[in-house]
Amino acid sequence: MKTGFSTPQTGTFSPIMVQPKDIVTMFSISRSTVTRLIGKMLLDDKYKSCVTRLNRNLVLIDVQMFTDYLKEQDLKGLKA
Known about the structure:
Layout: E1 17-18, H1 20-27, H2 31-43, E2 51-53, E3 59-62, H3 63-79
Antiparallel strand pairs: 1-3, 2-3
């Protein structure tokens, strides 16, 4: 006999925006490197929207755009 109930599916959650301290753990890079990259991203019109400052102490970074920025910087280094 079948019932209309199904077992809930568990999935993974990937955050869209994170704080710089989370970038440090996600990418295994130092906090000073994250700060330097954020500064460079703010100067680049393409990636400026990746960084959101909610107040003086709280900065959020779009994880996907940060990853794209790292890949782009890596490719620039290979082309040089």
